[in-house]
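pasting for ref
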Amino acid sequence: MSYIINSISVFCGSSMGSDSAFYKKAKEVGTFMAEQKVTVVYGGARVGLMGAVAEGALSKGGEVIGVIPTFLTSKEIAHDGLTKLITVNTMQERKTKMSDLSDAALILPGGFGTLDEMFELLTWGQLGLHKKPIGLLNVNNFWDPLVACIDKMVESNLLRYSHRNMLIVGNDLPTLFEAMKVYEAPHKAKWMEKNQV
């Protein structure tokens, strides 16, 4: 069974980071999605890794939809060359809108905002509010400590193994994307079984 991905939310840093591989991979994500005819939905900024994703997709004629809170557009970081730029009032509205517009999500290196977006999507999936695949692109092993922490949650019986597997981890973009297309959501949402996390 194949999960059809026509659009994907990409979450990543608004800074470039210290590793040049981050920028290279972010731009590659954009070009790859354009070549796959997958619409990129992202945070709407022209700066950092976010901007690199958009530029990569646009350079190949891809469709790119930005979703940005009004208070960030006033800081002049909004990308003015996108297929479509949607403004919302709050950060929470941004996450909800991006999810509504997307069939899947891809996480690249980033900071607090990226983690917030990823864990909210995972929590929604855990609660059975969506069945979308969530990919974590582990560029230069950036996410190794986070993956180890999540595995520790399972080991400590604070997270169900089936819910840990909602996060599809990979370091090769085409392979990760293929894994996302065959994703199957957990059959049971959190709290559906007694005495289980």
